[in-house]
Amino acid sequence: MLFEFVCDGFENYKSAFNKLFYRVANLQFGVPIACKKYGKKHNNNPIERRNGKTNDRLSATRGNFKSFEGAEAFMNLRDIIYNFINPHQELGGKNACRNG
Known about the structure:
By secondary structure, the protein is mainly alpha-helical. It has helices at about 10-20, 45-60, 70-85; strands at about 5, 25-30. Helix content is about 45%, strand content about 10%.
């Protein structure tokens, strides 16, 4: 079974996929960002939002990591803050780790 990647119509994704993953995965290319609206199975709005937030945060740090491990720890901490500290719209403004 091959992995499946889904991406919008940004041409660089297709060329990178063809160089790196064509033997182990399939590519659904050109899927609109709000594709559930068009009756498709996948919706990449959450991924686009996460990528944008990550880019914003990395721009603020200007990539000043001394090691891969430092960058990885930073991104793990960012995931924890995003998932358990920040209030979520889908939870009515509550945090994921609180029960009420």
